[in-house]
Amino acid sequence: MRVGIGTMAKSKADEKILSYKDVVLRRTDLDILNGPNYLNDRTIEFYFSYLSSLFPSDDILLVPPSIAFWIKECPDTASLKDFVEPLHLSRRKLILFPINDNSDVCMAEGGNHWSLLAFDRNSNVFVHHDSSSWCMNEYHSKQVYKVTLPYTSSNATYREYPNTPKQVNGYDCGMYVLAIARIICQWYASSGTQDAGTLWFSHLEQVSPSAVSEMRDDILGLIKGLMAVPKSVA
Q1: Continuous segment of H or E residues that includes residue 108
Q2: Out of 41, 128, 172, 173, which one is annotated catalytic?
Q3: Which one of 25, 137, 173, 225 is CB 3.0 to 4.6 Å from 115, fit for a cystine?
């Protein structure tokens, strides 16, 4: 049987290159990180999972993109309760939600923009970090805030943080989500229970266009390094 070149190319692109915890990365994910490209769900889920291993604590929950999306768009309140309760949101001290502007439940990995919604229980506040100058995801982040209030803290407040570091191109929004998520986890691990007033805001100055570009290369190197680890060890 003859296999077309197009079929072979697609097969190569879909090739599984790494299984990390519950995340499976494919060749296309490396291609995304290699160039000036918008991050997909898998790449964000991988790095969130990696951060969870760096900061292991039942107090911290980094929500995978697919779960954050379903929380935002689930049309049935009853089924949402069954879906959310296993996350134990009520006992988490820090929760990070990746926010995407996709509203179509029939379109996997849709949308055009990522942002980050963080809940800190010590200060009882949801903070939305949007790297676009127009705060493109405000509506979507507020949807997650409203839906999760019964499961997190019924009287928690919401705020947009206007001094969130801004991207300088049209594709790095996902990278800013990862960079800010890392900053918040580092902050919480070092002094999060003591800084209810100032939160992590002063640390965000570390997130710059050059730092984000370097981080993209670092994540690519991290994946390649994990690929080189024997399966019996990984």
Answers
A1: none
A2: 173
A3: 137
